What does this fold into?
Amino acid sequence: MRKYLKLIYQDPKETFYQELNKCLENNTKKFIITVNPETLMMSESDKELEKIILNKENCLVPDGISIVKACKKIGKYIKERITGIEISEYLLKIANEKGYSLYLFGAKEEVIEQLVIKIKKEYPNITLLGYQNGYVENKEKVMKKIVSMKPDICLIAMGIPMQEKLINKYFKNAKKGIYIGVGGSFDVLSGIKKRAPKLFIKLNLEWLYRIIKEPRRLKRFWNNNIKFLFKIRNKE
It folds into this structure.
């Protein structure tokens, strides 16, 4: 687990956002992976995902508070979480300000359609190159199309590890752009689901809010977050 944690992005959120700006301004490319305990637990048994996580050219950001605490145990001090939903919101904001292009891939059809409506209304200056729900049969064909269109920003919402594996397979062919897997963020960005109240976010209890709203997440939380904490504690 230590080998993964050593690669987690350490600088403050604002510094990270500045790096995103430079990437967009210079037409370079970046593959962002939002890391939580589930990501790392999967990496231990999924060799393809592990290879992606260990690729130092990719950018691993600390999405969960458990990751921040685990890094502290190995002497790596991270000031704050950088979540997928916050990165997405920032990218939409900067894209609207500067007219960058965007492609959306993932989630259910009704979710992505609602998100497109919201983007056209609230971020009218974004050049929306296209969008596709995540249930299309030939996802690789869509990914090839996206890369050929050279978007400045590509948000892919399919959940781990599918989104990371899909991006990884075609990212080498991308000439530019920020590619990031954002899991269930389209549900929140579209307004179909609400993000946790600010107090939960401030106290790093967003995970608790999700479980309260969706109790079926409890088993998943146990299998990943709790087991991750035991694993870290046992290796102190």
Summary: The beta strands are 29-35, 59-62, 101-106, 127-132, 153-157, 177-181. The first helix runs from residue 2 to 5.
